[in-house]
Amino acid sequence: PGSTAVGCPGCGVPTPAPGPTLLELAKRQLLDRLHLSERPNVTRAVPRAAVASALRRLHPGRARLQGLLGPFAAWDGPAAEAQGYEIVSFAETDTTGTLGPELQFELSQVPARDVEIVEAQLWLPLRAPSANVTLQVMGPDGAALSTRRLVAGMGGWHTFTLPPGLHGLPSLHLALRCHGCLHPDGTRLLSPGPARRPFVAARAQARARGHRVGKR
Amino acid sequence: SLRCAPDSALCCLQDYYVDFRAIGWHDWIIKPEGYQLNYCVGQCPLHVAGSPGMAASFHSAVLNLVKANSIAGAGHACCVPTHRRPLSVLYFDRGSNIVKTDIPDMIVEACGCS
């Protein structure tokens, strides 16, 4: 206030000059708008081939990462007013079990606390099973919450829409079980290769702010 | 909307590019490689108050001058963003998931006097 320097006297806040202060403001602004309290520390590196493969499947014809950076094509209804997110979560796969491979997805904290998943789809690269294979969604206590039978003989990428009730689980734990297989381990059920990694593609949106009117 | 020149005094748009590699954020932000932290800077004489786009026409400048004269002493106008656009970001979150989002109204594209 009262300054004659270049700035905005009407606002009463001097404009920071380019330098460390402005950079800190830039970082803070970006984190705030992403609903993050601090920058994420990436501890698990996802193979680039897996990322490219997943994005190619989700956005055919726009294989390059840059091509994905347009605005969302369609967010209808109330979601159109909220900030939307697309999330791709890759599985941590345990193939050491004797019953079949188990997949773990950490979707509970993505991408921030004020964001909720509204739609999620599982993508599984399967070898053509010769016997009956089921996909089970496991609860925190180890019991199966949902079971789905896969068609024998159908190899390649399979997609499954996850029921909304499963979105809020602390983590998504899936188990593939082969009934009648001599060796139902992961190496024989899941397609091999770094580009063929199971993933969950989800759409999320920021929770609406302000008070809600409840109806009893 | 004016873009700032080295000798700009009036309200203008100042370009400022933040390179994510330079600040060490390229490990979690996949795309873009940086973003335009543009901001508005400069003075707003009273006769251009209320003309986003900085006195777009002679007539609006005259009208605002009249208005400014009638409310002289009431306060100062502010150099503020008048147009923004969203920024699409592709990044890794805490769980190493890939997230894409459009941050609305993130990049300042034009400035004007309030």
Verbal overview:
The complex is a heterodimer of chains A (216) and B (114). Chain A has 216 residues and is an alpha+beta fold. Chain A is 13% helix and 29% strand. Chain A contains 3 helices and 9 strands; from the N terminus they run H-H-E-E-E-E-E-E-E-E-H-E. Chain A has helices spanning 20-33, 48-58, 186-189, and strands at residues 84-90, 92-94, 102-105, 115-126, 132-138, 144-150, 156-161, 172-179, 199-206. In chain A, the strands form 2 sheets. In chain A, strands 2-3-8-5-6 form a 5-stranded antiparallel sheet, with no helix packed on it. In chain A, 26% of the residues are buried. Mean pLDDT of chain A is 73; it is low at 1-10 and 63-80. Chain B is mainly beta. Helices cover 11% and strands 41% of the residues of chain B. Chain B contains 1 helix and 8 strands. Chain B has a 4-stranded antiparallel sheet with strand order 3-7-8-6. A two-stranded antiparallel sheet of chain B has the order 1-5. A two-stranded antiparallel ribbon of chain B has the order 2-4. In chain B, a hairpin with a 5-residue loop joins strand 7 and strand 8 (98-113). The longest helix of chain B has 13 residues, at 58-70. In chain B, 33% of the residues are buried. At the A-B interface, helix 1 and strand 1 of A face strand 5, strand 7 and strand 8 of B. Strand 1 of chain A pairs antiparallel with strand 8 of chain B.
